[in-house]
C-alpha cells in the first residue's frame, strides 16, 4: 500500500473510532423511559411496614403491618383478607405446598389458598428478611443477631437448622441449583451459602466499591449479582461464581430492596428517596442505568410480579399528629409540660414514622 493510501485509510479509521466513541457516550436520559406507575391503592390502618411480597402464582400481595399480614389481590389491589397475630417483617411462600410463612417470632405458617393458619413455629433471634429456596423447598428466616438464619421445611414447618452468616443479613437470592447469596449489611459483603449442607462457602467483599448492601438481584442464567448499597448509593455488579466486581452504577438514596427480572434482563432497586432505579443488562459484562422512576417518598422495599413483569412498592404516610391542647395562661408554668421522660396526656408518645395510624400506599410500576 502506498503512503497516500495509508494516510487515507488511517484517517477513515480514526473517524470511525471517533464515531464509535461518540455513540458510546450518547445514552438515553435515565429520567425518561418506558416504566411508569400504572396502578395505585391506599389502605388506612395502624402499625409499621417493612417488606412487601408478591405471590405471582396465586395472585396475592402480602404486606405485613403492625400485628397482622395484610393480603391484597395482586391484580386489583383490593383487600383479600389478613393473617392475624403475626407481627412480621416479611413473607415467603412455598408454591409447591401452598404454604405461607411470616418472618416473625414465632413464625406463622398458613394455607395460601384459604389464608387459614396452620401452625406457629418458635424461632430465636430477631426475624427480619425471609426467602423461599426452591431447590430444597425450605424457608430461610434471617436475623441481624444470632442465629443469623433459621431454616424451615416448607412442607411441614419443621426447623431444619440454623446458620451463622458472620454478620447482619438483609436480602437474599437463590440460583435454584444449590447456591444462595445473602447481603451482609454490616460487613459490606455477600455470603455464599451451600443450601444442601447449610454452610457458608464464600464471602464476596464489596469494600471500596459499596457499603451496607440492602437489596440484591441475581441473574441466574449469566451468573451476575447486583448488590444495592447504601454508602455510596450504588449498585455493585459482581460475577456470582467468584465475586469479581464487574462495575458499579449509581442508584438513589436509601435502598432497602431490589431484584432481577430474567424476562426483561433488568435489575431494579427501590429507594427511600422516592425513586426506583432500573438497570439494563445489555450483555453479561455491559450494564447501564436505563431509567429512574419517580415513585413515592419512603417507598424503599419492592417485589416483582413475574407474571406481568411489574414491580410493586409500598410506602407509609403517617397520619397528622393531633392538635396540642392549649394551656390556660393562668396555669403555673411548670404545669404546661409533662415531667421529663413521661408521656403527654392522652397516651404514649409516637415512635418513628412507621408507628401509629397512617395510610399504606401501594404502587405498581410497569411498562
Outline the structure in words.
The chain has one helix spanning 3-25, and strands at 36-46, 53-55, 60-65, 68-73, 79-84, 91-94, 99-102, 107-111, 117-121, 127-133, 138-143, 149-153, 159-163, 169-174, 179-184, 189-194, 199-205, 213-219, 224-229, 234-239, 245-250, 255-261, 266-271, 275-283, 286-294, 301-305, 310-318, 357-366. It has 367 residues and is mainly β. A four-stranded antiparallel β-sheet has the order 1-28-27-26, with no helix packed on it. Residues 1-28 and 330-353 have low confidence and may be disordered.
List the main descriptive attributes of the protein structure presented here.
single chain; 367 residues; mainly beta; Methylamine Dehydrogenase, Chain H; 4-stranded antiparallel sheet; 1 helix; 28 strands; globular; disordered N terminus
CATH superfamily: YVTN repeat-like/Quinoprotein amine dehydrogenase
The proportion of strand residues reads over 45%
What is the 3D form? globular
Number of strands: 28
What is the level 1 CATH name? Mainly Beta
CATH architecture, by name, is 7 Propeller
The count of domains is 1
Ordered list of secondary-structure elements with their pairings:
Elements: H1 3-25, E1 36-46, E2 53-55, E3 60-65, E4 68-73, E5 79-84, E6 91-94, E7 99-102, E8 107-111, E9 117-121, E10 127-133, E11 138-143, E12 149-153, E13 159-163, E14 169-174, E15 179-184, E16 189-194, E17 199-205, E18 213-219, E19 224-229, E20 234-239, E21 245-250, E22 255-261, E23 266-271, E24 275-283, E25 286-294, E26 301-305, E27 310-318, E28 357-366
Antiparallel strand pairs: 1-28, 2-3, 3-4, 4-5, 6-7, 7-8, 8-9, 10-11, 11-12, 12-13, 14-15, 15-16, 16-17, 18-19, 19-20, 20-21, 22-23, 23-24, 24-25, 26-27, 27-28
Amino acid at each position: 500500500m502506498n503512503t497516500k493510501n495509508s494516510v487515507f485509510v488511517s484517517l477513515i479509521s480514526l473517524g470511525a473510532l471517533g464515531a464509535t466513541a461518540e455513540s458510546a457516550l450518547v445514552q438515553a436520559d435515565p429520567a425518561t423511559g418506558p416504566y411508569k406507575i400504572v396502578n395505585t391503592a391506599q389502605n388506612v390502618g395502624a402499625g409499621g411496614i417493612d417488606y412487601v411480597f408478591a405471590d405471582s402464582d396465586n395472585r396475592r400481595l402480602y404486606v405485613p403491618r403492625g400485628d397482622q399480614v395484610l393480603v391484597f389481590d395482586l391484580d386489583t389491589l383490593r383487600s383479600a383478607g389478613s393473617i392475624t397475630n403475626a407481627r412480621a417483617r416479611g413473607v415467603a411462600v412455598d408454591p409447591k405446598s401452598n404454604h405461607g410463612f411470616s418472618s416473625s417470632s414465632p413464625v406463622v405458617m398458613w394455607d395460601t389458598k384459604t389464608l387459614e393458619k396452620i401452625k406457629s413455629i418458635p424461632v430465636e433471634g430477631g426475624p427480619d428478611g425471609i426467602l423461599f429456596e426452591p431447590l430444597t423447598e425450605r424457608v430461610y428466616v434471617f436475623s441481624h443477631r444470632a442465629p443469623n438464619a433459621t431454616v424451615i421445611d416448607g412442607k411441614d414447618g419443621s426447623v431444619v437448622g440454623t446458620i451463622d452468616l458472620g454478620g447482619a443479613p438483609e436480602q437474599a437470592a437463590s440460583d435454584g441449583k444449590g447456591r444462595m447469596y445473602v447481603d451482609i449489611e454490616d460487613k459490606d459483603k455477600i455470603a455464599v451459602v451451600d443450601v444442601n449442607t447449610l454452610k457458608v462457602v464464600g464471602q464476596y467483599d464489596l469494600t471500596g466499591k459499596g457499603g451496607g448492601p440492602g437489596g440484591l438481584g441475581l441473574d441466574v442464567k449469566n451468573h451476575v449479582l447486583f448488590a444495592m448499597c447504601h454508602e455510596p448509593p450504588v449498585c455493585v455488579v459482581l460475577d456470582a461464581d467468584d465475586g469479581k466486581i464487574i462495575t458499579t452504577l449509581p442508584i438513589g438514596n436509601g435502598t432497602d430492596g431490589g431484584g432481577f427480572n430474567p424476562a426483561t434482563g433488568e435489575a431494579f432497586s427501590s429507594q427511600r428517596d422516592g425513586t426506583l432505579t432500573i438497570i439494563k443488562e445489555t450483555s453479561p459484562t455491559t450494564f447501564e442505568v436505563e431509567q429512574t422512576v419517580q415513585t413515592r417518598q419512603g417507598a424503599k422495599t419492592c417485589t416483582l410480579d413475574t407474571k406481568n413483569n411489574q414491580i410493586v412498592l409500598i410506602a407509609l404516610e403517617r397520619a397528622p399528629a393531633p392538635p396540642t391542647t392549649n394551656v390556660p395562661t393562668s396555669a403555673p408554668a411548670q404545669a404546661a409540660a409533662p415531667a421529663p421522660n413521661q408521656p403527654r396526656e392522652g397516651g404514649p408518645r409516637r415512635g418513628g414514622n412507621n408507628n401509629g395510624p397512617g395510610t399504606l400506599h401501594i404502587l405498581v410500576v410497569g411498562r
